[in-house]
């Protein structure tokens, strides 16, 4: 095998494909990156039994062939090479990397021991890369990080015709985002639970292309997998087993009060009063006649209060939240104005964004947050 | 000025039993675990004369004092009496620091008599000191009398200028005594004592000091701080040095903040059956949350403790992102933690605790749905998380329906076992309260070979008679514990263990 490729192209492709390589590989070959050169293209693939990544780039291929080398080492090397064309060639069980006056000789790993990468499921539809990445980021923030409840570490992707609904929860808050996409089949219906961390990484790394296509395996081949493809990059991820608890009934539909607050000053105020809220002790919000009072801390320790303008329709209410959960939601709505809807101080509150004070709330993203109950 | 008071009830559990059981008054009584692994919790003064002391193995106690009454502890009664004692203490000062059910520090200066005890800037003349000392003695004597009236039990009291000396004084005053360490006489009390008398000096430290030729407090004080720091390290050396010099500035702290709430049980026979182990975990988790809630707290970290047949002890914990006081959440975590513990050889002790306490609870979206539905069915198996009998695989993966079925099955099987277990467990433990349809209230004196012996008497009756029944006699049932002070209110005559009252002060010669 022998090929030449631009340094930047190689470095970017290796970095992306090596992303999913395990730090402590269960089998030595899984530390490898599989390089395949054929007819003007170089493909690089990595796999850790959970996530597979495959990227194709243009290359000047002299001799076709396949080789397996340490992914971490190749990533470190290609990142540090001078900006000159890179030539890669095999020499028995070794690989030579030559770039300008630099020359590296690497050991190869046995290709025949490398597991077959899972087949990419058939594409189900596509969505603009930036829309997808933004939607995933809004939802993944609410996913659990605790491996003891694996189901809650996932983002649920539900496809119903031309609508995709993403949902995640860590049992204290529940984020749901809907967006439209172009399905391959108009009456498509599917559900998948994808590890939130992997989904977030994947969605971010696929924004360079115009669109991302999602490939959700039905009951046929490739079951238990979801694939993403965009800009020459393909990745598959094993799905989590199980499903999130049914959530439609969790979201209240009738409210006793709706508060509208400008997001930026609200975020600033929460951050300030939360300085005295050690270890995520709650921040209390009291809405009375168009004034929002924020309080944190206790009389035993430091205390903080702040007042803000807020528009309240309905009954006055006093409610407490974990400041981190509240700030997560306020950043996720990504809107100049926040709308908080309440039923009672012990029931979950619904947060959504408004493009302006007098505009309707954007219902595409909803963030349900459970309050904190003060003892005694 | 001597304004710190330490009160210690005399042979508390044993004295309560003697007060409750007239036939035992003046006799040796030993309270503790009666199983093969039991230890003595409290021995009455009569039993102490035979060499029995607390923390001794019960087998040893039986050999030393074979004729004593061996009784199981009745904690609910001790707690009731303790509350009465603490209430009496709080009447003289709000600053009461309970150390256990039968022991507390009181800072008299913080109470209504505080102003009188303060010299108000005057020079501590001999006259002023004598006046304060006399007043404190009178106050302490009243306190002992009040406790006697309210509980029928005796207490020993030490009063001094520091916690350390007050506790040493009450120890020296025992039983049924009062000792006040006058200002300026502290060293006279402290110096001859072994170093073990100092707070924070246990057997290991004492041995270490003994090898360096330091056996008494006076010798420790003479050795000086530098030497003690060299022997014991910086923190402990410095602490021992200042204690030995009679300096102890620790304040009396009321409502010591709770750091954790936990419940544990040692089993008479090692538990090998996994279902039984999990059932005990459920029971412990529930009781732990009950205590947590009673304290008005919530917590973030759930801990399970397991001591296995070979005494290997391990703890496993899991920390939530936010505090909870939800029994379902604690139970779920405790079970999950147990899944990772191998108990095949049998366990002798199980415990469930909650730490990382807070006074607020982050509500759980799914627990909330349960309440709304008024139904034990939690949506989404994973969150309900009751592992099926086959293990933890079900927790993560199974769809909600299956999950519930597995949990339901586990519940049923344990229910099915319950009646049989209850039948076998109708055991009559010595000391236990019973009631007979015909003979009224009494207590179990002993049982064996299918019979149970009951003595029918009450705290306010003369010593009663003994009768024997079959263990399954339907006329006999467990009874409620009776109040010590009788149906008509407080008993005027204290009847505690030990010789007659004595009181005194270490005074100058």
TrEMBL record, chain A:
Annotated SUPFAM superfamilies: DNA clamp (SSF55979)
Q: What biological-process GO terms show up in the record?
A: DNA strand elongation involved in DNA replication
Please provide the record's keywords in A-Z order: Cytoplasm, DNA replication, DNA-binding, DNA-directed DNA polymerase, Nucleotidyltransferase, Transferase
Subcellular localization is given as: Cytoplasm
Asked if Amino-acid biosynthesis is a keyword of the record, the answer is no
Q: Pfam family example for this protein?
A: DNA_pol3_beta_3
Where does the DNA polymerase III beta sliding clamp N-terminal domain start and stop, copy by copy? 1-118
Q: Where is the DNA polymerase III beta sliding clamp central domain?
A: 127-246
Q: Name one GO cellular component term.
A: DNA polymerase III complex
Q: Which residues form the DNA polymerase III beta sliding clamp C-terminal domain?
A: 248-372
Q: What Gene Ontology terms describe what this protein does at the molecular function level?
A: 3'-5' exonuclease activity; DNA binding; DNA-directed DNA polymerase activity; identical protein binding
This protein's superkingdom? Bacteria
Q: Which InterPro entries match?
A: DNA_clamp_sf, DNA_polIII_beta, DNA_polIII_beta_C, DNA_polIII_beta_cen, DNA_polIII_beta_N
Task: Tell me how this protein assembles.
Answer: Forms a ring-shaped head-to-tail homodimer around DNA which binds and tethers DNA polymerases and other proteins to the DNA. The DNA replisome complex has a single clamp-loading complex (3 tau and 1 each of delta, delta', psi and chi subunits) which binds 3 Pol III cores (1 core on the leading strand and 2 on the lagging strand) each with a beta sliding clamp dimer. Additional proteins in the replisome are other copies of gamma, psi and chi, Ssb, DNA helicase and RNA primase.
By sequence similarity, the record places it as follows: Belongs to the beta sliding clamp family.
Q: What does this protein do, in the record's words? A: Confers DNA tethering and processivity to DNA polymerases and other proteins. Acts as a clamp, forming a ring around DNA (a reaction catalyzed by the clamp-loading complex) which diffuses in an ATP-independent manner freely and bidirectionally along dsDNA. Initially characterized for its ability to contact the catalytic subunit of DNA polymerase III (Pol III), a complex, multichain enzyme responsible for most of the replicative synthesis in bacteria; Pol III exhibits 3'-5' exonuclease proofreading activity.
Designated name of the protein: Beta sliding clamp
Q: Which organism is it from?
A: Wenjunlia vitaminophila
């Amino acid at each position: 095998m022998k090929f030449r490729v631009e340094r930047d192209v190689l470095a970017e492709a290796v970095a992306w494909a090596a992303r999913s390589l395990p730090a402590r590989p269960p089998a030595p070959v899984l530390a490898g990156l599989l390089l395949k050169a054929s007819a003007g293209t170089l493909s690089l693939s990595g796999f850790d039994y959970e996530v597979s990544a495959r990227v194709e780039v243009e290359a000047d291929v002299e001799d076709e062939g396949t080789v397996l080398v340490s992914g971490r080492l190749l990533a470190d090397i290609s990142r540090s090479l001078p900006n000159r064309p890179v030539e890669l060639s095999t020499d028995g069980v070794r690989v030579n990397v030559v770039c300008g006056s630099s020359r590296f000789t690497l050991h190869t790993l046995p290709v025949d021991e490398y597991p077959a990468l899972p087949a990419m499921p058939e594409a189900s539809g596509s969505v603009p890369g930036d829309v997808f990445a933004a939607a995933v980021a809004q939802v993944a923030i609410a996913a659990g990080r605790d491996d003891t409840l694996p189901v809650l570490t996932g983002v649920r992707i539900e496809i119903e015709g031309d609508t995709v609904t993403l949902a995640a929860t860590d049992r204290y808050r529940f984020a749901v985002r809907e967006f439209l996409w172009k399905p391959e089949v108009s009456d498509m219906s599917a559900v998948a639970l994808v590890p939130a961390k992997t989904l977030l990484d994947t969605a971010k790394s696929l924004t360079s292309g115009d669109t991302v296509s999602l490939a959700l395996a039905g009951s046929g081949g490739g079951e238990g997998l979801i694939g993403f493809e965009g800009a020459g990059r393909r990745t598959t991820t094993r799905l989590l087993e199980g499903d999130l608890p049914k959530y439609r009934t969790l979201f209240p539909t009738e409210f006793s009060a709706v508060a509208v607050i400008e997001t930026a000053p609200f975020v600033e105020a929460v951050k300030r009063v939360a300085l005295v809220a050690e270890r995520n002790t709650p921040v209390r919000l009291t809405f009375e006649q168009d004034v929002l009072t924020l309080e944190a801390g206790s009389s035993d320790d430091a205390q903080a209060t702040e007042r803000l303008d807020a528009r309240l329709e309905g009954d006055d209410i006093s409610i407490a939240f974990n400041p981190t959960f509240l700030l997560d939601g306020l950043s996720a709505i990504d809107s100049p104005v926040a709308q908080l809807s309440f039923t009672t101080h012990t029931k979950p509150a619904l947060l959504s964004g408004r493009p302006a004070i007098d505009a309707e709330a954007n219902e595409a993203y909803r963030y349900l947050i459970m309050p904190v109950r003060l003892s005694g | 000025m001597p304004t710190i008071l330490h009160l210690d009830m005399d042979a508390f559990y044993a004295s309560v039993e003697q007060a409750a059981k007239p036939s035992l008054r003046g006799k040796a009584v030993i309270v503790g675990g009666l199983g093969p692994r039991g230890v003595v919790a409290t021995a009455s003064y009569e039993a102490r004369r035979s060499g029995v002391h607390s923390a001794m193995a019960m087998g040893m106690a039986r050999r030393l004092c074979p004729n004593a009454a061996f009784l199981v502890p009745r904690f609910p009664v001790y707690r009731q009496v303790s509350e009465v004692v603490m209430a009496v203490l709080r009447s003289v000062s709000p600053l009461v620091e309970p150390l256990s059910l039968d022991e507390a520090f009181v800072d008299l200066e913080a109470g209504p008599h505080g102003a009188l005890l303060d010299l108000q800037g005057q020079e501590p003349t001999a006259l002023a000191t004598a006046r304060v000392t006399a007043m404190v003695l009178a106050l302490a004597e009243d306190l002992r009398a009040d406790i006697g009236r309210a509980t029928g039990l005796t207490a020993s009291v030490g009063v001094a200028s520091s916690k350390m000396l007050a506790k040493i004084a009450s120890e020296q005053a025992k039983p049924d005594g009062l000792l006040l360490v006058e200002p300026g006489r502290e060293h006279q009390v402290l110096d001859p004592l072994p170093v073990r008398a100092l707070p924070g000096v246990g057997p290991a430290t004492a041995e270490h000091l003994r090898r360096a030729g330091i056996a008494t407090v006076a010798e420790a004080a003479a050795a000086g701080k530098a030497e003690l720091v060299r022997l014991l390290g910086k923190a402990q050396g410095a602490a021992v040095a200042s204690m030995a010099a009679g300096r102890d500035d620790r304040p009396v702290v009321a409502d010591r903040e709770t750091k954790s709430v936990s419940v544990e049980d040692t089993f008479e026979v090692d538990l090998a059956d996994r279902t039984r182990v999990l059932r005990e975990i459920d029971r412990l988790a529930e009781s732990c949350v009950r205590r947590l809630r009673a304290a008005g707290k919530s917590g973030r970290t759930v801990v399970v403790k397991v001591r296995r047949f070979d005494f290997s002890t391990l703890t496993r914990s899991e920390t939530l992102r936010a505090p909870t006081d939800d029994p379902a959440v604690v139970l779920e975590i405790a079970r999950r933690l147990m899944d990772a513990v191998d108990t095949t050889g049998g366990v002798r002790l199980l415990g469930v605790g909650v730490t990382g306490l807070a006074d607020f609870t982050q509500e759980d979206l799914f627990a909330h749905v349960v309440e709304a539905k008024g139904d034990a069915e939690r949506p989404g198996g994973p969150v309900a998380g009751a592992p099926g009998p086959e293990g933890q695989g079900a927790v993560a993966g199974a769809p909600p329906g299956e999950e519930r079925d597995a949990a339901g099955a586990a519940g049923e099987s344990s229910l099915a076992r319950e009646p049989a277990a209850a039948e076998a467990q109708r055991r009559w433990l010595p000391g236990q309260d019973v009631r007979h349809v015909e003979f009224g209230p009494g207590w179990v004196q002993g049982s064996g070979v299918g019979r149970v012996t009951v003595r029918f008497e009450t705290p306010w009756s003369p010593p009663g008679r003994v009768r024997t029944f079959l263990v399954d006699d339907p006329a006999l049932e467990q009874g409620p514990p009776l109040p010590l002070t009788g149906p008509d209110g407080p008993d005027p005559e204290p009847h505690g263990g030990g010789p007659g009252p004595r009181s005194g002060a270490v005074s100058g010669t």
